[in-house]
Structures are given as structure tokens and as C-alpha cells.
């Protein structure tokens, strides 16, 4: 039985592109093709023997070369008085914010008008290609509403998608914005690249999502970077049939697409690379293996003149990688395994355990013209960290729980270990923030799963930039929006604020009016007040009568009215004595 439809085809060993004229990411059946006459006349036994002898000879030469290289690496023990190295000083600064912008403005920095127009055009084109008798007629404004509704769907979880429009479980933030059939239609024809431009010899497995990837990469790499940067892998959950799907047993979601991410210590993404198979060396870069090539590729987005520090774990570490980064002037630090350090021998865990917790050893080597340090530290078990800039000293003390003594004890910890653990949590924070409200719209098309993941990633990036601006302007913590409030604010603006702006010039809202509205919002109105950006867009706000009279929601009015705004859904006074309707929407 062929198990590849269930477990996917490992892209490392596969030369078949996952792209075809269809939109699914299924693999084509591999059928044997007849060979030519010359190959048919060859003796199969002689060919197999020759191939075996050639393969064995190549293996012996490769093993001999690797063994020679292993023996040439000689590590020296480092004494305490010579182990200290200078810590790189960051010469860059983050820009100061002028003001705190609306959440949707941060989001539109990434999903700008040009990208939305591209998605709309490609979706309309794909609909015409699939069914010439129908037209999708999707425009950027409606596309923003579609994105806003899927954000609301990620916040309010229901077992079935159609329940958002049902009478029993109707969610007005979704059902009032877009109909169920229109939502299904947009989802069906959502497309990002023209299939007619895909040549038969095209080997780009990400062709159908390439415009989104290129646009977001350019904007992510333009974000000002902090000093500490981290490279790790991220998984996009997916259990369907796909040759790009990977199995990662140590991840919370074991099946899905793998993405390598360059982010800072808070999770702000600066670059990424989607795994489609073995990564070849970039032009002008040394070939140090698939994982090392990924680090060098992502490191091209780092501003080396500012003395950034790069972190990664043992999945990427090697002496070749540390040497390549050192020769490029980029300090790096990462955990390693014993077999990744050629010629380096540390004491065993049992020997270090006898010496007590906090025992460490440090060794150094000059490899490819770069000096590197490796430190093994024993706490509850041994851990090895290598770098091309810091050493073990100075030594600090950390608090640990002792199971035998039943109280906390202080354990010696080298500076290289403390430095690694201090700035480790960037990728974990990013994954947790994305997973907190992940878009769960199901689709068999692999580029849909990537698109919704990038929407989640952009929301998190936008929120982190908002937090950076709040830190710059010393905004109190209690006045900031958390990720959930930020996400719902973006969703509301995308759903309710149209792109058409009235030509009538409006005065900026008064600070006193905005302050009173915030007080009224805090007291708990019967219906949530729309954001300032929505209520001042001058699109779709019409007075309509209601069957019952309710309190006016304008901050300076305490009267009651039967008139309410058709878009905002709140009651406002509208008579010959006062016109709160106009004042509220200024």
C-alpha cells in the first residue's frame, strides 16, 4: 500500500514539484517511463556492480576526508583568568514614535492597498478562468471585510463555520458584514497568482503564494531591528495531503508546513523562509549544509554594522556556521550537541555530577580563521553552548530548587549560559501569540493555509510595533491594548470602515469629546461604541428610527432618542434643538 498520500512525500528527497494546474497540493502518481535503446542494451548485472563499486569508493573518500577534518580540529582548555571576552556593544537605536496610531493603521502597513489590489485582481481572474459565465467582482474594500470577518471567526469559536450565520448562534459582527454564500464564494476563488504564468518547467513550489511572500518579506525586513535576534522554526498546522507537509513530533502541532523565522526577543518577525526541501547555498555564501545555509540566508537581513547578536539552537549549530558568521562580522550564540563539535571532548555528565551542580568546562579553538568558545555546564543535566564572541566568565549565581534539601540553593552559572537563556523566548512568544487566536477557516488549498497564517503573523507584528511605540512614548500598561483587544479593533475597522472617503473636510475630533466618550465606554453602554476611525469615515452612516427610545450615546448628551445610526447601531439625538448625530460623526 502506498502511504505517501497519508504521510506526504519528504521534499528533501523528492524532485517532483507540488504544483500543477489544479489548486490542491496533491502529488502526481509517479509512473515509470520506458528508457531509450542504448540503456536497454546494457547488462543490468554489470551496471549494478559498477554502480556499487563507484558508490563504495565515493563513500570511503568522503569518510576519509571527514575523518581528516575531524582530527585536524584541536581544542584547548581555557583557564579562568583567560576566558573572559568582550561583549559586543550595540551601536544602533530604535526610532522614537511621534504618536500612537490606530491599530488598523499598523495592519495596513503590511496589507497595503497595492497588495489588496493584487489579491482582488488575481481572485477575479481565477474565477473567470474556472467559470467564464460568472464574475466574482471582488474589490479591495470587500477583501478587507473578508479579512476582518475571519479575524472575528478566530476570536469567537464555533464548532461549524455556518453557525456564524444561523439563527440560533448568529454572530452579528460576521453575519451583518457579509452573507454566508458570499463568504463561501470568496473563499472558493481566493487566489494570489496567475496559473497561466506558471511554466511547465517551473520548480517554485510556492508559486501560488509567491506574491504574498515577496510583499511581506520586503516589509518585514524594513522594520528597525533590536540587538538580540533569534532564528528558529515554526510550524503551520495542516493535516491534509501535501508534499510540503512535515512531521515534527516535538511540536504542539506535529503535522504541518515548516517556516524558518528570524525574530527578536519579543517575537517581532524580521524575515522568514518557507521550507520546501534542502536549502542550497546563496550566491556568494559558503555551502555549509542545509540548516547552516538557512541561517546564512536569513542573516542577510541583519544590519551587521550595528553589532546585532544572533541566537539559534542545536538544530542549526555547527563549527562551519559559527566560523562563517564570525568571518562576516556577526556574533552568534547557540546550543550544540557533543557530536557537532569536531574533536572536542568534555567530561561526561556522571563525572560532572560528582563535582556538583554548577560545574562547567570551557574550551576554545581557531577554526577557519575564527576563534570559537564552547562551554559545558551541568545543572540537572549537562548542556553545551558555543559561540564566536562570549566566554564563560564572568560567572554569576542562579537560584535552583534542590530536591534533597527541599529548599532553593544558589548554583554557579557561566555568563554564556545566562546570556543564552536571557534572550531565548522570542520565537516561543511569537508561536504562543499566533496560537492564541489562530484563524481556523479550513481549506484543502495549501496557499489558503499560508495566507491565513500570514494574516495572523501580521496581526502579531502590528501589535508588537504598537507596543514598541507605547514604550517609546511611556504609555502606562493599563492604557495599552492587549493582543485580543488589538485584534478585535483591527477586525472592526476592516469590517466597518470602507475605503471610500468623503470629500467633505472634517475638523479633527476634540480631545474633550474623545475623553468623554472613553468615560462613557468605561461605564458600560448597552452597545459597544465604534472606534474613532469608523465613526468618522463618512461612509454608510444614515439615521433610522427604532421601535424603542434609548439613551443618546453622545458624550455631552443625557437625553433619549428613537433615532440611531444604521452603521454604528447606536442611538443619537436628531431634532431641531440638538443634532448629536452630526456631532458624534465629526
From TrEMBL:
Chain ranges of the PiggyBac transposable element-derived protein domain: 103-463
Originating organism: Xiphophorus maculatus (Southern platyfish)
Residue ranges with Low complexity bias: 52-63
Signal peptide as annotated in the record: none
Q: What is this protein called?
A: PiggyBac transposable element-derived protein 2-like
Lineage, broadest ranks: Eukaryota, Metazoa, Chordata, Craniata, Vertebrata
InterPro entries per the UniProt record, alphabetical: PGBD
Q: Where is this region: Disordered?
A: 1-63
Composition bias type Acidic residues, residue spans:
13-28, 38-48
